[in-house]
Amino acid sequence: MSVDKDTRRGLFANPAVEARMRKRRGAERRFRAYGRAAVAFSIAALAWLLISIVSTGASAFTQHWVTLDLNLAPKDTDTIPNDRRRLADALAQAFDVPSNEETRRELLQIISASAATADIRQRHDEAMAIKITVPTSDLADQFLKGHIDPALPQGQRPITDRQISWIAILDAEGRINRRFNRGLFGNPDSRDPERAGLASAIFGSAMIILIAGALALPVGIGAAIYLDSFAPQTGWGGRLTRFLEVNINNLAAVPSIVFGLLGLAVFINFFGLQRSIPLVGGLVLALRMFPTIVIASRAALRVVPDSLTDSALSLGASPMQAVFNHRVPLAAPGMLTGSIIGMAQALGETAPLLMIGMVAFVTSVPSSPMDPATALPVQIFLWSGSAEAAWAERTSAAITVLLAILMIINGAAIIWRERLQRRRKL
User: Dihedral, CA atoms, 167, 168, 174, 176, nearest 10 degrees?
Assistant: First the structure.
C-alpha cells in the first residue's frame, strides 16, 4: 500500500505523531551522545594510564655513572679483605674528609658500592691507584634526575647535605655522566635498584611462551577443527560433543589462579618437576591458553560458509580434503589472530606463575627451560612491593617493556592476518 506525499505530510502534521517523532529523535541523539562520551572517557582513561606509566618509568631507561680515581690501601693478609672498607677509605681520601663510620656510610651511599667492590675484587694488586667507572647509587641517581628536592630540610629528604655537596663536586669535575641504561635489559635481578635488570624475566617469559605455544597451538587448533567439522552432532556422540563445548567455554572463564593450583598439584607435586622453572610455567600457561585458542578458532571456522565445503564434497573431495584444503585456509587469518591474542594474554598472566613458585630471586639469566627463572609480570609484582623510590621507576619501566612486547605481538597478529587475507583474495 503506497502513501502519497500529501497524505504523508498530513500524517506528520498530527501533533501526537510529531511529538512521538521528536521524542524518538531526542532519544537517538542522547544515545549517540552517550556513546561518544563513553568512547571519549575510555580513550582519556587509557591515555592517562599510559602517560602516567611511561612518564614514571621513562627515567629508568637512563642511568648516571661516576668515574673515580682512588688510592686503595693494601689488603690485610691476616684477615678477610674488607673491600667495602677499603673503598670507603679511598673515597674519604679523595674528598679529603675524615674516615669515620658515619662518613664512610654516607660516602658508600652515593655510588653503587656492590658494583665498585666487584670491580675491586677483580684487581690483584695489594696497594694501587685505580680508576673505576660505576653506576651511582639509586639515591644519587634519583637526586640527579630531579626526583628529590634539595630545598627541603635535611630531615625531610633521604639525602644529606654532605652527600649533595659531594655529588656537586663530582658533577662539576665532569665525573658524572648520564647514559642509556643497558643494564635494565642486560642484567638479571638484584637487590640494588641501580643494578637490577629484566634479562632473567625477559628470557624466562620468552621460554614460557614458546613452550606454551608449542603445546597449546596444535592441540587447540586441532580440537577446534575436530569439534567444528568432524565431531558427531547427533545421538550420544552429539551429546558428548555439546558437553565438551560447554566445558571448554567454562574453562575460558575459570580464574587463572585455578590453573596455577592445577599445575602445582599435577606437575610439581605429582610429577615432581622443580618449582620456578620455565617448563612448568609453559605447561601451566598452555592449559590457560587452550580454551581461548579453541573458542577463537571455532569462531573463525564458523565464518566460512558451509556451501564451500558442500561444493567440494559434491565434486568428489573427501571430508578431510574439503576441510583442510578449503575451510581451514579461509579461516586461517582468524585462527591465527585468536591464537596470537591468546599467547599475548598468557604473557601477562601473574597468578598461575605465583602459584608454581616463580617468585624466586633469580640473579642469573636462565639458559634452559630447567633453570630457575622468573617472568615479566612476576618481576613487576616483586619490584612493586619494594620500599625504595627507585623501584617505582623500575616497576613502571618494566610495565612499559611488557606493554611494548604485547603491542608488538598484537601488531604482528594484525599484519599477518592482513597478509593472509590479501593472499586469499588473490
Answer: 30
- Beta partners for residue 63, in sequence order: 179
Q: Where are the alpha helices (DSSP H) in 109-198?
A: 113-121, 138-144, 161-172, 183-186
**Rounded-to-integer distance, Cα 206 and Cα 200, Å:** 10
Distance CA(55)–CA(135), nearest Å, equals 22
Burial string for 162-174 (b: 16+ CB within 10 Å, else e) reads bbbebbeebeeee
Neighbour tally for 303: CB within 10 Å: 10
Element (H, E) at 97: none
Here the cell at position 40 is 571519549
Which helix (H) or strand (E) is 361 found in, with range? Answer: none
Q: Residue ranges of the domains in the chain?
A: 63-179, 199-425
CA atoms lying within 13 Å on the CB side of residue 307 = 1
Numbers of helices and strands, H then E, in the chain: 18, 3
Whole-prediction pTM = 0.85
Half-sphere exposure of residue 362: CA atoms within 13 angstroms, side-chain side = 31
Summarised one tens digit per residue, pLDDT across range 315-366 is 888 888 888 888 888 888 888 888 888 888 888 888 899 888 888 788 888 8
Confidence class for position 388, pLDDT limits 50, 70, 90: confident
Neighbours of 420 (CB within 10 A): 18
Whether residue 366 contacts residue 343, with contact meaning beta carbons closer than 8 Å, is answered with no
Superfamily of domain 199-425: MetI-like (1.10.3720.10)
User: What's the order of all strands across the beta sheet hosting 176-180?
Assistant: 128-135, 62-72, 176-180
d(C-alpha 357, C-alpha 277), whole Å: 9
Residue 387 confidence (pLDDT) above 80: no
**pLDDT class of 71 with cuts at 50, 70, 90:** confident
- The whole-number pLDDT of residue 5 equals 56
Neighbours of 225 (CB within 10 A): 22
Angle between helices 278-303 and 199-225 (to 10 degrees): 40
Beta 62-72 vs 128-135: how paired, if at all? antiparallel
Length of the chain: 426
